Amino acid sequence: MSSDAAQRLAFVQSHLQVAACANKEEPKKKTPVESMSEEREKATFDVRELTYFLDGGEKFTQIREKFMMELERDPTFRMYDMYDVTKDQIRERTMEKFRTIVHYVSAEPVPIFTMRMQTISLIDPGFWTRFGVHYGLFFGALRGSATSAQFSHWVSKGALALNGMVGCFAMTELGHGSNVAGLETTATFDEASDQFIIHTPTITATKWWIGGAAHTATHTVVFAQLIVRGKRYGTKSFVVQLRDTRTYTLMPGINIGDIGKKMGRDGIDNGWIQFTNVRIPRTNMLMKHTKVSRAGEVKEPPMAQLTYGALIQGRVAMVVDSGNIAKKAVTIAGRYAAVRRQFQSSPHVFRRPS
Ligand SMILES: Cc1cc2nc3c(=O)[nH]c(=O)nc-3n(C[C@H](O)[C@H](O)[C@H](O)COP(=O)(O)OP(=O)(O)OC[C@H]3O[C@@H](n4cnc5c(N)ncnc54)[C@H](O)[C@@H]3O)c2cc1C
């Protein structure tokens, strides 16, 4: 018999002895908690020190842990049944959470509130996204593109306190996502009435994917082609009311649909919007960069791209959030690998013939 064949035979025989060996010396099974402590003790560095380093200092770790404890104890953030509830129930819960978080917006400094939201996203990314669409995109567009007088006006209307105003951000169209300069929605200045007419001229100009549009937003910042006296000036942003703030019925000329269930983040109600000759006051155009006077004079900024700034922050936030979610996934996978016990790892069982 060749030595190769002898080795294979010995290996097969070792399998046949499994039951006997396993019965002889049944190893004591470790509990998952024991396995985890054992793995943790193997660390060759100070885990706590690394945590402080990753959080930016001990103070920030303490703040993060405080947020985590608050969320664990807050029943509005319960997630244990999230796979049993419907899309509509998840969306309702999202709006309940708004109430619990709103007061922190003005009570906490921005970096601390940002940390709170990053912690929340680890628990409920759908809520984080809906809240982020209002504060990051809608409110961010007001902050970045409104004059200071316009900004104060929208804050007084409830944009900061979410008092009678919940925002969304209507930039993307069915036919145009990356190409913001090529958007088709129009905003035509009507000098006689001192108004803009917001209009969706084609199917591909339908605003698409708009987070919060399907049910929850009362207002939106719309990106549209500015047209004054027949001349096009490129894509600018305009505040448009979508729904009655009390009854939530659609305003005249607004047509909205629900994009429906997604692969994740169902807490946010993404929808589509069509505008049919919707009239808004001229002053609803956000005029920090480009200005249109009562007489129809257009003053343009040195850099037209400034208009698109609002989404940059949103996109950066999505990348940071993806990083945090990936950290959570790696942590779960690492812990699972440390405690998962399957088959036998006794040398009797998997002994290879030498
Ligand atoms: C869940 C979800 C929520 C969203 N919420 C909102 C919202 O609230 N408001 C809103 O306005 N939008 C929203 N969007 C839309 C989002 O901003 C767009 O999906 C994004 O801007 C990309 O546009 P697009 O999907 O049309 O892709 P496209 O523009 O068609 O791009 C498709 C691919 O081609 C690449 N590409 C595009 N142009 C070029 C080029 N010139 N050269 C090389 N590569 C190119 C892109 O990088 C991409 O990989 C949402 C999208 C999703 C999926």
From TrEMBL:
SUPFAM superfamilies to which the protein is assigned, alphabetical: Acyl-CoA dehydrogenase C-terminal domain-like (SSF47203), Acyl-CoA dehydrogenase NM domain-like (SSF56645)
Domain Acyl-coenzyme A oxidase N-terminal residues, every copy: 46-156
InterPro entries linked to this entry: ACOX_C_alpha1, Acyl-CoA_ox_N, Acyl-CoA_Oxase/DH_mid-dom, Acyl-CoA_Oxase/DH_mid-dom_sf, Acyl-CoA_oxidase, AcylCo_DH-like_C, AcylCoA_DH/ox_N_sf, AcylCoA_DH/oxidase_NM_dom_sf
Domain named Acyl-CoA oxidase C-alpha1: residues: 308-346
Cross-referenced Gene3D superfamilies: Acyl-CoA dehydrogenase/oxidase, N-terminal domain, Butyryl-CoA Dehydrogenase, subunit A, domain 2, Butyryl-CoA Dehydrogenase, subunit A, domain 3
Acyl-CoA oxidase/dehydrogenase middle domain location: 168-278
One term under GO cellular component: peroxisome
Cofactor: FAD
Entry's localization field: Peroxisome
Transmembrane segments: none
Family, per entry: Belongs to the acyl-CoA oxidase family.
Name of protein: Fatty-acyl coenzyme A oxidase
